[in-house]
Amino acid sequence: MVEPAVNTPGAQAASGNGRNVVEIKNLSISYSGQTALEGVNLTVREGEIFGIIGPAGSGKTSFLKAINRMDLFSTAMEVKGGIRFLGRDVKDWRNVYALRSRVGVVFPLPVGLPLSVYDNVALAPRLRGVKKKADLDIIVERCLQRAALWDEVKDRLDSLGSLLSGGQQQRLTIARSLSQDPDLLMLDEFSIAVDPVTTMRIEDVLKELRKEITIILVTNLVQQARRLADRTAFFLNGECVEIGETEALFTGTVKDQRTLDYIEGRFG
Amino acid sequence: MADQKQEQPMQAATSIDAIDKRNLDWFLDKGVQVLIFIGGISAIIFVLGIFVFITKEGFDFVLSRFDLAEFFTSPNWRPTSSANPTYGALALIVGTASVTGTAMIVAIPFSLGAAIYIGEFATGKTREALKILVELLAAIPSVVWGFIGLSIMNALIIDLFNVPIGLNIFNAGVILGLMAAPIMTTIAEDALKAVPDEYRAAAEAMGATRWQVIRKVVLPAAKNGLVAAVLLGVGRGFGETMAVLMATGHSVQIPDSIFDSVRALTATIAAELGETAVGSDHYGALFTLGIFLFIVTFLINLTADLVVRGIKKK
Regarding the domain with residue range B90-279+293-313, which homologous superfamily does it belong to in the CATH classification? Predict the structure, then answer.
């Protein structure tokens, strides 16, 4: 279980055959009748970092919630349209927990569960039945190393995860997501509560991960999308204004003037 | 692009069924959900069962003998009169309401004060000791409180206020207030504790005094929980039987002053039910009182619940 099993889709990521991990068709999301997102069509390809930029309230977080069915937590949230994950509509998944276990999520504010550092990272493997201490040790060390946290916490794996600093907790959250061995990693403005140095370290981690995991990166830092994303979508007021190759967008090749205005900091 | 897309469903279909399958964990989850659902629904079944039972017992009376106007407007509760039994509950309703009202006048300042002190001012051992004491206070049986009302408060009131009878609204109200205060304190303190410390820090950082922070930030934020605490106290007062039976004087009358004896709805049922023949008018009338009590307590609790929800929505 340390290496992604050969027959899972994740194993094929490195080959980058361009399979679509997420396909969104005419997606609309509303809260108690109030539209948060309307008419979104896009695909996220295997092995890419797909950036989503846009000001607050543009529907970015709602978009992520719809993908791994976090809408089930809220009776007010209504999702219409098609979301296919690994080729199957998320509403047709027979085991929603299996769906969620394939999708890692990193929330804006770090969530260090009230467990030890070790147990935080070992939780997901244990949930899927890994019991041997030796196996868990390998997974924990590997995930913490990939999240660039190992050197800082290797001597205090038994201390509470919630006692780490904000930046460390956010990397712990990433390590925990990686321990799920997910096909898709969704990051929602991960750098909001993290200092610039740690942000750069996490960005380096994400660049490494790109080879193995498909990533959706929601960010309010336009330059972060430029540094990391292969393609970028611009959301504004619940509308997906534009999707394009990141480099093209940032060098002025835009279809919609609003995208350029946002990227160049004229609003938002 | 188009070719690729057509190929994928085939390729995905094989691997996805291996991922998306209902395993043991999934079935375990469903099973536990069913058990928890049964546990949750049983509360509703019990409440409905109680309601059906007391309604059934009071039903014949309500249909044959019951007079709505008499029930709510006549102060004459004379169920045992052989010539002309009357079933006016007004005096009993006024009795219960006046005792509960007095109890709240006593309990609200005590409980909110205690909650604010425990939650906002007390620290360390004082705080822990107070919390344990308050919980201990809540565990005192109501008959003990009634005993205090009957033996200690009675004599005290006669001496202090120079009134002929010490068993009256004032006595029962104070006793009931002291009984309800610990529970109200606990709930109110929970409401205060639920206010995030960041609110206090933000307000204190503006130079607000402790009291200003409490009055302008903490109390408004905890408002719903505090209102719920008071309403639950009211519900407790309405339903309390033994202490009220012992401390009110148990005499049917519309009181003129706080030092008049009264009789409560609950006390009437407790004192008289044992002496009635099952199925008689008197028996049915007592169950009708029960239905009335049930509906009132239900409405009070419902209001408390809606208040708490209302605050959440905002």
Answer: MetI-like (1.10.3720.10)
